[in-house]
Specification:
The complex is a heterodimer. By secondary structure, chain A is an alpha+beta fold. Helix content of chain A is 23%, strand content 38%. In chain A, β5 and β6 form a beta hairpin. In chain A, α1 runs parallel beside α2. The longest helix of chain A has 17 residues. Chain B is of the alpha+beta class. Chain B has ten helices and 26 strands. Chain B is globular and about 75 Å long. The chains are: A alpha+beta, B alpha+beta. Chains A and B meet through β2, β3, α2, α4 and β4 of A and β2, β3, α2, α3 and α7 of B. β2 of chain A pairs parallel with β3 of chain B.
């Protein structure tokens, strides 16, 4: 492959292409869908090629699935033609001169050597763990991915592994579903807590509606992830900052004193970890919020050049998209309060529709599909109500951070307590 | 030399072992995206996807494997992987339905996309974009042109061969307004199963102008009153509601896994008796799905008939488990993905009331518009759904009154279509070529719509007045 790409780079140079970047991704996926019985298994060998060319400051991207010599040479020709009609970018300062990789473990031999029979064993273990409850829906995917990045100046590659699973448990009528994803088989197994899903689906059976009013609430880690992703982290992207589309300004106090949030691409085996980003730059750790103050934004190479700062190693890309800044892993530091010390609150377990909130104005508007009221230590299950409040005020004045971080997707977060929140129900 | 996909299919069939049957999907998807920002050409993207998906069957067992590489080695490896899978997987209720269907079908179009030079497309699009600057309040505007050419070939070792060609064109436009420290951004999409004639025939200048006018108007709009309200939904909002609240919970995989609240409600009244909800593969202005990805001809499926839950949306496998007929709803994002139960075009059949009469008969309520919607979401297991609507209007004393900002509506599947006041005699369907419906990491294009509908009790999020 390397030989073919080198030939292609020579060909691009002959055509008169000033800069070129060839991104190739291969994913070998073994997947199983199941419930109490096995549904199906699938295997795929996916290749994708993205060709980005720059001619006289004009940029074009051609992408195709598959990788072959013909596709590569044809793709370069098409991208070159496209670049001639493209717009010149006055802010363009060139592709990175050098690539680099940070030290982080993202490759697990156990995942690499696993076969369909091993996936079947995990499913049998899950079946055993849930006892009398029903697995209403589930899947396990094992992925071995390899990314290659080539330019005239340099080249880099990395192999990563991932195991992910969605599991839904039904006790009687209601399902409770959760997603797990890690780069290591052992960490995946440690975090695969199917027993708590059984308890939650059991509790949902007698769910009631809540009366409209103001309540103290505790957000589950899943709810924290969804709300913070939508209302805060997405607005720390340098792309939005440079368009003036963020309310979060550097050095401004936006959260409580205890709020510390960092992005990190270098946590061993975490779902969003990788040695280099979509620009071929080493990943790192970046404090975004410290003591409630905005400290940094999330940058890729291009947006960092515009602001005259160093990239934070956050370029994400697929074979058919250009690099753009996105978080690697988001970590919210834990606080001092234990959940067991609290009483008289509504626990918000699962929410939907967070994308319907308005992050720019701070209007938090999400539907709760499952939760429970805790009063005098007793739990009353709840469903079907709305959280409607001012997220800016919550962040600055009304939240307390609990002492129990855990992973949800690429977020390592604790539960969060919030005072006096408007819940709209009956 | 160009490789014939039929030769690839024959190669796969010739490598089957005794007792094996195969279902083969080979597809090529092309998408060109041109973007104009603030009157000037901004970006061009050219995306191609190709893949071979092979499902092998033997003795009531099956295995699926796929590759994006079109060479003998990769294809033989895929066959071997499918074989490994059916051996590990064990028995299934599903086997290959022998089919000898031979069909070649294409969506209608007049002008091939590649016939028009890119420079001309950019010129036309820049002109359209400039029309959206209706006043100095509009600070930014972006217009995208999307062109899809999707070639699908489906073969079975039992002699089936279905060739489908889909050609579609779409425009997406956003306007961003700013005045007195307030900002508003709205976007809308118009998509059509047609070639480049779409750009010539549709009045796209008026389309972008309207987006700007609405953005400008809603800049200083108030939030609508929250709580339960009487509402009239336009076809786009209704379609989105049906898609989230009835379409997803009717999908066969959610039914057989027990993950849908509708799973044991067949034959039960779940809506007003005037409600008929249909999933159809071929409908004017919808996305074109003549066959599903298991080679089943897509027929009209009544999910709800006269208010009674009537049918689910099935793959062959889920239909077998439920002892139902095939409905032609097995769809995959592309040939290298496994087909799962999906909607095609979901709509409510029209009634007999003119939309203007509905407004006239309303003392106080909201007219909810789909332009500017951010989509919706459903938790099929509890029946809770939520969706966003664009800037809308208060109805006072039978007339459309002041504009209000977009809000979210939410509710439960079993409540929402029980309080129907009237159903409109109009009808329209929408699909969005730039986006789609995502499930199990697969995005497919779906259409939805219907007539206007007036509902007496819908939960609007927001503070009550």
């Amino acid at each position: 492959m390397e030989k073919v790409i080198r030939e292609a780079l020579k060909y691009a140079e002959k055509l008169g292409i000033d800069e070129i970047e060839i991104f190739v991704k291969n994913e070998k996926i073994k997947k199983m869908n199941f419930k109490s019985g096995l549904e199906n298994m699938e295997s795929s060998d996916f290749w994708g090629t993205g060709i980005r060319v720059i001619v006289d400051g004009k940029q074009a991207l051609f992408s195709t699935t598959g990788f072959s010599e013909n596709k590569l040479f044809d793709g370069i020709k098409i991208a070159y033609k496209m670049s001639r009609v493209s717009k010149k970018d006055p802010l363009w300062e060139g592709l990175p001169e050098k690539y680099g990789k940070s030290k982080v473990q993202v490759e697990d031999k156990k995942i690499k050597s696993s076969d369909f029979a091993d996936i079947k064993d995990i499913w049998l273990q899950i079946k055993n763990d849930v006892g009398n409850a029903t697995i209403s829906r589930g899947n396990i995917s094992m992925i071995v991915e390899k990314e290659y990045l080539f330019s005239y100046n340099d080249h880099i590659s990395e192999e990563r592994t991932k195991i992910s699973s969605t599991i839904g448990i039904r006790y009687d009528r209601f399902n409770f579903q959760k997603y797990f994803s890690f780069r290591s088989m052992d960490i995946f197994k440690e975090n695969l807590d199917t027993k708590s899903l059984v308890e939650k689906s059991k509790l949902l059976e007698s769910a009631q509606k809540i009366k409209t009013g103001r309540y103290n609430i505790v957000l589950s880690r899943e709810a924290v992830t969804k709300i913070f992703k939508r209302m805060l982290i997405s607005l720390l992207s340098s792309t939005l900052v440079q368009k003036g589309s963020t309310p979060y300004i550097i050095e401004e106090q936006v959260g409580i004193e205890d709020l510390v949030i960092k992005d990190s691409g270098i946590v061993d085996f975490a779902p969003g970890s990788r040695g280099f980003d979509g620009d071929g730059q080493p990943t790192r750790e970046t404090y975004l919020i410290e003591k409630g103050e905005v400290k940094n934004y999330i940058y890729d190479y291009y947006t960092a050049k515009i602001d005259g700062v160093e990239t934070t190693g956050n370029a994400h890309r697929s074979f058919n998209s250009l690099p753009h800044p996105e978080p690697n892993n988001i970590i919210i530091s834990s606080g001092d309060i234990k959940l067991e010390e609290l009483d008289n609150y509504v626990y918000i377990d699962k929410i939907i529709g967070e994308k319907l909130s308005r992050p720019l104005s701070g209007l938090l508007n999400v539907s709760v599909s499952s939760g429970f009221l805790v009063k005098n230590g007793e739990k009353t299950p709840l469903t079907g109500f709305i959280i409607y409040d001012d997220f800016f005020d919550i962040l600055k004045n009304r939240m307390k951070i609990l002492k129990n971080q855990a992973w949800h997707e690429n977020y390592f977060v604790p539960e969060i307590f919030i005072e006096n929140v408007l819940l709209i129900g009956d | 030399m160009e490789i014939l996909y039929e030769d690839v299919a024959n190669f796969i069939v010739s490598n089957l072992k005794f007792g094996e049957e195969a279902e083969i999907r080979i597809e090529e998807y092309r998408f060109l995206n041109l973007k104009i920002t603030d009157g000037k050409f901004d970006e061009i993207k050219n995306i191609r996807k190709f893949g071979v998906g092979i499902r092998l069957f033997r003795d009531k067992k099956f295995g699926f494997s796929a590759t994006t590489q079109l060479n003998k080695k990769a294809i033989l490896e895929a066959i071997e992987n499918a074989r490994k899978i059916y051996n590990v997987q064990g028995l299934s209720v599903y086997d290959l339905e022998p089919t000898d269907i031979h069909d070649t079908i294409s969506s209608d179009f007049q002008i091939k996309h590649e016939k028009i030079p890119i420079e001309e497309k950019i010129f036309l699009l820049e002109d359209i974009n400039k029309k959206s600057f209706v006043s100095t309040t509009i600070r930014h505007a972006g217009t995208k042109l999307g062109e899809m050419n999707y070639h699908k070939e489906f073969y079975t070792s039992t002699g089936g061969k279905i060739i489908t060609d889909l050609v579609a064109t779409a425009i997406n436009h956003y306007s961003y307004a700013k005045s007195s420290g307030k900002t508003e951004k709205l976007s809308n999409t118009k998509s059509s199963m047609s070639g480049f004639e779409f750009v010539y025939n549709e009045n796209l200048s008026s389309f972008v102008e309207y987006v700007s006018l609405l953005t400008e108007k809603s800049l200083h709009a108030r939030d609508p009153p929250g709580g339960y309200q009487t509402v009239i939904l336009d076809p786009k909002v209704l379609g989105l509601l049906l898609h989230e609240a009835f379409g997803h919970p009717s999908e066969g995989d959610l039914i057989v896994s027990g993950n849908s609240i509708l799973r044991d409600k067949k034959g039960i009244v779940i809506a007003d008796e005037r409600i008929n909800i249909v999933d159809s593969g071929i409908v004017d202005d919808g996305f074109f799905v003549p066959y599903d990805d298991e080679g089943v001809r897509k027929k009209d499926t009544y999910i709800v008939y006269n208010g009674i839950l009537n049918s689910f949306l099935h793959t062959k496998r889920t239909a077998r488990i439920c002892n139902d007929k095939f409905t032609g709803n097995a769809r995959a994002e592309i040939s290298y993905r496994f087909p799962i139960a999906r909607q095609t075009n979901l709509f409510l059949e029209p009634g007999n009331v003119k939309p203007e009469e509905m407004i006239k008969d309303t003392q106080f309520g909201l007219y909810l518009q789909g332009i500017g919607t951010k989509g919706g979401h459903v938790d099929p297991s509890t029946g809770t759904f939520t969706l966003s609507v664009g800037p809308s209007f208060i109805i006072r004393n039978g007339e459309l009154s002041e504009i209000v900002k977009g809000v979210t509506i939410s509710g439960n599947i079993f409540d929402v279509l029980k309080y129907v006041d009237s159903i409109g005699n109009d009808f329209s369907i929408h699909f969005n070529l730039f986006k789609g419906c995502r499930k199990d990491s697969q995005t497919v294009k779906v259409g939805f719509g219907g007539p206007h509908i007036k509902l007496r009790k819908v939960m609007i999020s927001g503070k009550s007045n």
